[in-house]
Amino acid sequence: MSNQKLTIVAKILAKQGKGEFVKNELLKLIEVTRVEKGCINYDLHQDNENENLFLFYENWESRDLWQQHMENEHLAEYMKATEDAVEEFTLNEMTHIA
Q: Measured between alpha carbons, how far apart are the two ends of the chain, in Å?
């Protein structure tokens, strides 16, 4: 299954008053991630009613290539920068079925 295309849905809820900061940190990830091996798309969304809620919708050629992405320095830098600014983070690994 690790060579099958993988969809990632990541939900990030910033703490009250930290939404703009978290958004700016998330935006820094886009350009560098989109050129990574295996990245099909890496799209950031912001909720229309809750400015502190963000969602990444990502597609990767395989789980192995996504795992390589997760180990990159730019993600470690994001995690360190936002560790006190994120209220909740959830990540779902999904498979396209239709």
A: 17
